[in-house]
Amino acid sequence: MVTTIRWTEAGALRSAHWHSESATSAPSRVIDADDRMKADTAYRLACEGTALLWRGDFHNARQLLQAMSRRINRKPLERSDSPAESFRLHRKARSHRARVLGRLLVLLQDDYCLNLRRAPDVSQACTEAYGPPSGPMAVPLTELLGVMGAHQWRTKGVEVPALDARIHPHYGVFSPVRGEYVDLVAHAPLPASTDRRADHRTAFDLGTGTGVLAAVLAHRGVDHIMATDISPRSLACARENVRRLGFTDRVDVVGPGLFPEGRADLVVCNPPWVPARPTSVLETGVYDPDSSMLRDFLAGLAAHLESGGEGWLILSDLAEHLGLRTRGELLAGIEAADLRVVDKIDTRPRHPRVLDTADPLHAARAAEVTSLWRLTAK
């Protein structure tokens, strides 16, 4: 993959390191753009594959991005009566939008300074997302705005009623804004082996992300929780949240990996709910290609449960309504792993998109149910 962009400015050839969280190759054609560029021109060039390196006013760049977005919206969305085809068209449209808008670039200097008029100080946000600076770096403006937004989330945190505290998500780590899955873990009956009367209670939280479910289990009185993830960003985020919440004596964050060594009385897993390929690192909390994490959880669960222990699978049925996975396939996976279902606790989503009738996936979202499946070894 090309990791450098080159452009001509004031008659001189210049270059910078290219960074894209979606792993998009560096654009082969880059031209300067500033406040004189019209939205129609910018949109046309971006659709043709030309990247625009912004050298004007920062707020004008944001306005140009909005104008380009409006031009994308003018094209009617393709629709289908097939849920699976609707999902495919939805992803295609989102990919086109991301590709076109991602061609408006900004240049971060050696210290992550954004040398544009009326530009905010983005150095802290960029350091949190990318690590220490290592030279000039070009990024899509859309990505930089996401980095800035993530910094605000990380600073302010997300209120989690089940903890009566805030969780602070890092850039690239799925935020617990959909509280229904957290509430399921907060209120499901603990298996007998993790009852408060037990001498010692252990749990695994697989794919911990921000660490929110591990924290909920600690809040409920589980003595020792091992939280895992494959993402270094998630591991760092979970460790920070565990420390903030004062649970370092109960929660160990380990990884990268899925299952830690040993067995536990309770194994909790909230895998990505949609079996589709993510197009960026940021989408890995939502999309699980071929349900690979779900399959690995089911396949390894029995071998990691103490006698009388339970596995809690938190899973939305959105994929079923989209025609991407059937209930029969899920039940067959549970059966093949020598597991049985003890109970299933359901809840309805509460996020605003459920009410958005303009969403091409509205029918599926309106029918969605999130469930906590209580599983035991046969």
UniProtKB/TrEMBL annotation:
Pfam families: MTS (PF05175). InterPro entries: DNA_methylase_N6_adenine_CS, N5-glutamine_MTase, SAM-dependent_MTases_sf, Small_mtfrase_dom. It comes from the Bacteria. One of its GO terms (molecular function) is nucleic acid binding. GO terms for biological process: methylation. PROSITE patterns: N6_MTASE. Residues 167-315 form the Methyltransferase small domain. This is Methyltransferase small domain-containing protein. It comes from Streptomyces ruber.
